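Meet my pick.
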Amino acid sequence: MDVLSDTLVLGYGNPLRGDDAAGYVVAEKILSLENYNIDAVSAHQLLPEHAELIRRYRRVFFVDASVDTTLKEIRVTHLSLRKTDLASLHACDPESILSLCKALYDSSPEATFIAIPARNFDFGEKLSPETEISVLQAVDFIMKHSTLPLRSERDG
């Protein structure tokens, strides 16, 4: 298995529905930084095919908008493998993609989910000011944490 890069950012959301584009925009901003240690992919939604993509990385950041109205700043969650019924995989979430990656390719990259607070899902390509600030916070978090040793290396 060829490792393309140490880190992948997989940002997803609908770029035509306001703040729903937050994850998509994070991936685009990471790409514009031209950091050669971080690859980024923007997508409208997670797909089972993303399992093949993430298998090539040691670390993956999944980034998406959150409809949780109590969320005031980015929420970072470290993900782990969970048992998933792969036969009925219709809706994809990061944990399902990780499980599929493990089942198909025996690969399990360290994975982190970043939820970005979002309020406006109206048609349009503009992020709300609050979501734009959170997008920048997510980019900053990814840039800082992508250079740290993997959790498995730190925990021994």
In short: The CA atoms of residues 29 and 95 lie 24 Å apart.
